[in-house]
């Protein structure tokens, strides 16, 4: 079978519709006929189901640029995994914006209502705007053409940590605040800071700024002095981190430094006492809402979080904080 | 006991020398007397061994800036771990440049010859020049005053992988080269590329550029066309990555993409056949020799590598390639 390319659609007739759409979920049914996206036609060529499109086999379709290699690799991989999928075109699927393929649950197809994954194809070197994440799976094609699927979703963050802390005094030292003889609840119940020893607790600048703003910590110059110091050493990033820190504390979640994991914070949802501390659940990286990811950085964060049995969450800061959970997916 | 600060040295007499140097390794013996660095005097104050320096206790020494909080935290931590250590000053230790403390093996002290660690103190927000790594341990103090020790050393990279590959033809497609019906040795023995299926191998641009330069791969425009494409999509980074790729292959080591680990390459030292592939040993991140690390990025890379049982190596590229291995250390 030979087909022809009409703009960005490969037109096929009734027989092709029966063979490829009705029984195997390729393309988009148009009246009695069939429209195929070039990537679908290339896959049918690759499988030997059709001979050529405008005289081109799969090698020529890829070489000519009529079909993108990364789209083809992802399409093929999902087909190899037993999925039917439809290119996300206006009129072909609901809400095509922001994704390349709509993937159906195994055993289902374009004639059903269910959707398993909304997939966006990304090359290893493509920038990924943080604002575009959520409700989509990134299919990242690396330089050696291996695929990594990253599932992204918007979420909230909530916990039950809520210890009261009596007033405490501190001294601002370079990049930390030292509290000598603080009330036990500061560290023991509320899990602020880190003990230098039994008689002294060190607070990070972000912890100190939050506690000073809440009226709990007295420090020379009040919260303004701590925030100023934070901005001196971190710039705008300090304000973003403080916004996320406050959002987490205000939601009953205890943020602690995520430094050892290369993140901004690790979080504990249900702290009653540091003597009975569970496993921290989330790793949080704070970013401006207009951040562009390099896929490699995403892969690094998600892989590390998985390895330490935590969930990676990106906190995107603008006027508000939006939370995007990202995890590796094996479709 | 009250001591006085003379410039950046705390002067103490013969009795202090006996108590603090001879028996516990503090300070530097000067004739019959003792010189202490302020951080050592602060630690003696903290322990209650001396009362004050110029009327200042440990709180005042830290608050006045006479002693840096991060230096104090690292000094205290190493003492808590049972080490004797000496501030790295000219005349106090050999080769003081580039480090803050010279740490002796447990049970040894400044009167012995052995050195366990040469330690540089780094705050979480300090830049760390890549060129300054090697032969030192970074003691990174994070914002919550927790410590992470990272041991850095210069090394070489060597292996026994050395398969011959017959000539092969390929087509340059956007960011990859596709070889249809290549010789089996290309993938099977030499482990170049990734199989699309049994009849086709996809090469990354860096693999293709190397193979074209070696005269193995024929491609339209030769290696120049592949390198040009690489520079189009990655800029200078492509040249650095190609230099490292070539250095690894020329040393008998097979580099494959490290994308899933957020690195440039993972490496296999002894490949005979992909059917009998061992565990990859190294994760390699390619950087310009004048790169400045953020300690958090170092922590992320080293943590991830450890979690997947690989060794993190930074390849610093200038005229040559220098290799810096970095691993977490528990002193």
TrEMBL record, chains A, B:
Domain tRNA intron endonuclease N-terminal, residue spans:
1-61, 168-223
Q: Return one Gene Ontology term, BP aspect.
A: tRNA splicing, via endonucleolytic cleavage and ligation
| Gene3D superfamilies noted in UniProt | 3.40.1350.10, tRNA intron endonuclease, N-terminal domain (3.40.1170.20)
A single Gene Ontology MF term assigned here is:
tRNA-intron lyase activity
Task: List the active site.
Answer: 268, 279, 310
Record keywords: Ribonucleoprotein included? no
Q: Any idea which UniProt keywords this protein has?
A: Lyase, tRNA processing
Q: Name one GO cellular component term.
A: cytoplasm
Q: Per the UniProt record, which EC number(s) apply here?
A: 4.6.1.16
- Top-rank taxon: Archaea
Q: Which InterPro entries match?
A: tRNA_endonuc-like_dom_sf, tRNA_intron_Endo_cat-like_sf, tRNA_intron_Endonuc_cat-like, tRNA_intron_Endonuc_N, tRNA_intron_Endonuc_N_sf, tRNA_splic, tRNA_splic_arch_long
Reactions catalysed: pretRNA = a 3'-half-tRNA molecule with a 5'-OH end + a 5'-half-tRNA molecule with a 2',3'-cyclic phosphate end + an intron with a 2',3'-cyclic phosphate and a 5'-hydroxyl terminus
* Boundaries of every tRNA intron endonuclease catalytic domain copy: 238-320
Family in the record: Belongs to the tRNA-intron endonuclease family. Archaeal long subfamily.
The UniProt subunit note reads as follows: Homodimer.
Which HAMAP family does its entry note? EndA_long
| Function, in words | Endonuclease that removes tRNA introns. Cleaves pre-tRNA at the 5' and 3' splice sites to release the intron. The products are an intron and two tRNA half-molecules bearing 2',3' cyclic phosphate and 5'-OH termini. Recognizes a pseudosymmetric substrate in which 2 bulged loops of 3 bases are separated by a stem of 4 bp. Endonuclease that removes tRNA introns. Cleaves pre-tRNA at the 5'- and 3'-splice sites to release the intron. The products are an intron and two tRNA half-molecules bearing 2',3' cyclic phosphate and 5'-OH termini. Recognizes a pseudosymmetric substrate in which 2 bulged loops of 3 bases are separated by a stem of 4 bp.
NCBIfam families recorded for this chain? endA, PRK09300.1-1
Q: What is this protein called?
A: tRNA-splicing endonuclease
What species is this protein from?
A: Haloarcula salinisoli
Gene that specifies this protein: endA
């Amino acid at each position: 079978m030979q087909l022809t390319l009409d703009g960005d659609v490969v037109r096929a007739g009734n027989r092709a519709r029966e063979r490829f759409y009705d029984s195997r979920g390729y393309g988009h049914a148009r009246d009695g006929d069939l429209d195929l996206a070039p990537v679908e036609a290339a896959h049918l060529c690759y499988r030997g189901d059709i001979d050529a499109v405008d005289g081109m086999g799969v090698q020529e379709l890829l070489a000519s640029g009529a079909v993108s290699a990364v789209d083809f690799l992802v399409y093929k991989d999902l087909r190899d995994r037993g999925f039917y999928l439809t290119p996300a075109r206006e009129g072909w699927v609901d809400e095509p914006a922001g994704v390349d393929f709509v993937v159906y649950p195994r055993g289902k197809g374009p004639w059903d209502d269910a959707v398993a994954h909304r997939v966006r194809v990304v090359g290893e070197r493509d920038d990924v705007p943080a604002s575009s994440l959520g409700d989509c799976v990134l299919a990242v094609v690396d330089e050696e053409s291996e695929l990594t699927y990253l599932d992204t979703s918007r979420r909230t963050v909530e916990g039950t940590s809520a210890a009261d802390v009596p007033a405490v005094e501190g001294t601002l030292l370079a990049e930390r605040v030292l509290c000598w003889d603080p009330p036990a609840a500061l560290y023991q119940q509320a899990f602020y800071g880190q003990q230098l020893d039994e008689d002294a607790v060190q607070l990070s600048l972000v912890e100190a700024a939050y506690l000073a703003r809440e009226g709990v910590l007295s420090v020379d110059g009040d919260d303004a002095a701590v925030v100023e110091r934070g901005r001196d050493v971190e710039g705008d990033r300090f304000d973003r981190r403080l916004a996320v820190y406050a959002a987490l504390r205000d939601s009953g979640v205890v943020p602690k430094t995520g430094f050892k994991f290369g993140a901004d914070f690790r979080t504990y949802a249900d702290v009653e006492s540091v003597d009975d501390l569970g496993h921290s659940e989330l790793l949080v990286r704070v970013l401006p809402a207009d951040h562009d990811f390099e896929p490699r950085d995403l892969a690094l964060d998600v892989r590390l979080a998985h390895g330490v049995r935590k969930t990676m969450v990106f906190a995107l800061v603008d006027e508000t904080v939006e939370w995007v959970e990202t995890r590796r997916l094996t479709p």
